[in-house]
Amino acid sequence: MQCSLVSGDGRHEPVALPDGVPVVLGRGPRTRVVDKKCSRTQVELLADYKHRAVRVTQRGVNPTSVEELQLQPGNSSTLQEGQTLWLVNGRYPYTLRFLPAPHSPRRSLLDFFSPKRHLPGEGDEGRPPKRQKAPSPPKEEEEDSAVATKLRQLQETAASAERAKGGAPRLPHGAALGLPPHPRDSWEEHGKLLVFTKEGVVPSAKVAGFDLDGTIITTKSGKVFPTSPDDWRILYPEVPQKLKQLQNEGYKIVVFTNQLGISRGRLRPEVFKAKAEAVVERLGVPVQVFVATGTGIYRKPLVGMWEYLCEKANGAVSVALQSSLYVGDAAGRPPNWAPGHKKKDFSCSDRLFALNAGLLFYTPEEFFLGWATAPYQLPPFDPRELDPQGPLYDPPDAALVSPTPELVVAVGFPAAGKSTFLKSQLVPAGYAYANRDTLGSWQKCVALVAAALRQGKSAAVDNTNPDPESRRRYIECAQDAGVPCRCFLFTATLEQAKHNNRFRDLTASGHVSVTDVVLNSYKSKFVEPSLSEGFAEILRVHFVPRFADARQEALYRQFSEG
Ligand SMILES: Nc1ncnc2c1ncn2[C@@H]1O[C@H](COP(=O)(O)OP(=O)(O)OP(=O)(O)O)[C@@H](O)[C@H]1O
User: Fold this and answer.
1) Is the pLDDT score of 274 beyond 80?
2) Where is the PNK FHA domain (predicted)?
3) Ligand 1 centre and the CA of 504: distance in Å?
4) Are residues 525 and 409 located together in one domain of the fold?
């Protein structure tokens, strides 16, 4: 199981709350709270997985609240799923997310952000679910930034004007706050990200995001891929009208599109830019377009484009996750998902992008045509479900480290986590370490291991060792030295290894990226290790997630490929 605290105004990534481990939260880079009224150690949170709740203890001077209940310094209360925690002075809302959800291991994040699925246009003019009412407002505030203070005052004035009119407080839209619309069409480039902002785009707390191909447009030719730059048409006649309606309701309209062809040299950036501008022109509403031109953090389903929007391309207006939405056709729908729709979706990356970001998700047919929710499948490996409290290895009564000399031979997929585990568990206990990637050949590994055993030391071999032949060299080494040889079988699956490999590429550890060919070759060569090969014991080593910091965890917990 996994528990995290989700920022209700999307200020930062969810914070993991391990079972029974106190986590202290307050002002600082982790929460991006700069308000001096919030202590750096404002609250202590203690997750209780058994009861799916979190004990909240106020450590700061100013009040933390759970729903309407204001705490005092040193006081505690229990935060349940569905309730809101306000970090200080009725500001900075958070909700809890436990995964997997009860009775539904595959329940999506959408359920946590919107208890009832809610299609815009269904009898309520597309308004988002009602927001929680904040407890008493802050008395006086000091922010590091005068601009942020001014903006917040404007936002609060706009909200109270709405309240005075008797309506529910509306979320800030730049126009209502007096922010000027974007003055002219512009393109910006940030590494593998292109951003187009149409004249008239205004920042807003409510964002309606859309994929481009297969969602807003399709090909005129009927082919899967466009045959020329002008081979496109609007997918459904309802699209422009629906976007106009969203604009009138105060949504900022944003397109997020993957265009890997640009970095692969198959699509010239100028050609794509001209097409994007023509599509926006045809839609007739101001749109901001984010284009991921290569692999990396900007490519959906990773949320780099979304974060860029929230942090750098929405003026100073904070995006409200619960009131925003995302529409895309890569939704993981199986074959025959609706009459006349025989083909399964080519991927699930749009749905996963929304899941990663914590956004409400709709397919184009659900959103533009009002169709019922279609069935879908998520990928077999779900990085959100890894349990940091899970067992490290089986059988649990085995010793991880031997008090007498031995040889440990690893077996597992590339990127299964072998090096990380052996270096953190065995090397600190004095084991010599042999790895073919660094030494250059298996012969050198054998030599290193033999020398260590001769000196009366233990040793560990960190190679994939998929078959008996690759393992036999080391077993014989141990037999020659008269010490036992154990096998550590890393249980991470192919899908997880692929995810780890992408994570390793993104975190720039200096390791050479492993291709799918290499991963699949391990799978085809793999023969389950057996005691009959000469092993004294076989330990099954599980992947128990451990992260250097919350940012690494936030990245790892995202679905990384559709
Ligand atoms: N317990 C863990 N928690 C979180 N991340 C991990 C853990 N173990 C490994 N990783 C990450 O997974 C990626 C792959 O891990 P590692 O390099 O240890 O795998 P490996 O099996 O040694 O790979 P290779 O055989 O290709 O050398 C790395 O980015 C690493 O940081």
Assistant:
1) yes
2) 3-71
3) 7
4) yes
Whether residue 118 lies inside any domain: the answer is no
Cβ of residue 544 lying under 6 Å from some atom of ligand 1: yes
- Ligand 1 centroid to residue 488 C-alpha, Å: 15
Pocket lining: 509 vs ligand 1, CB cutoff 6 Å:
yes
Asked if residue 526 has its Cβ within 6 Å of ligand 1, the reply is no
**Considering the domain boundaries, does residue 112 fall inside one?**
no
363 and 398 share a domain? no
Find the 420 Cα to ligand 1 centroid distance in Å.
5
In 486-509, which positions are buried (b, 16+ CB within 10 angstroms) versus exposed (e)? bbbbbebebbbbbbbbbbbbbeee
Name the residue range of residue 420's domain. Answer: 393-543
Closest C-alpha to 465, from 542, 531, 401, 528? 528
Nearest CA to ligand 1 atom 9: 417
Residue nearest to atom 15 of ligand 1 (CA): 417
Count of structural domains within the chain:
3
Do 417 and 509 lie in one domain? The reply is yes
Q: How confident is the model at residue 61 (pLDDT cuts 50, 70, 90)?
A: very high
From the CB of 460, is ligand 1 less than 6 Å away?
no
Q: Residue 353 sits in a domain of what CATH number?
A: 3.40.50.1000
What pLDDT, in 10s, does the model give residues 382-416?
Answer: 999 999 999 999 999 999 999 999 999 999 999 99
Same domain, 258 and 334: yes
- Please say if the pLDDT value at position 136 is more than 70: no
Tell which one of 504, 523, 543, 558 to mutate to probe ligand 1, the residue whose CB is within 8 A of the most ligand atoms: 504
Residue 146 has pLDDT above 60, yes or no: no
Q: What is the DSSP secondary-structure string of 201-269?
A: ---BS-EEEE-SBTTTEE-SS--SS-SSTT--EES-THHHHHHHHHHHTTPEEEEEEE-HHHHTTSS-H
What's the pTM? 0.72
Residue 382 lies in a domain: no
- How far apart (Å, rounded) are the C-alpha atoms in residues 76 and 66? 10
Share of the chain above pLDDT 90, in %: 72
Residue 387 CA to residue 104 CA, distance in Å, equals 17
Instruction: Please give the ipTM for the structure prediction.
Output: 0.98
Residue 115 lies inside a defined structural domain of this protein: no
The verdict on 515 and 444 lying in the same domain is: yes
pLDDT for the residue 506: 93
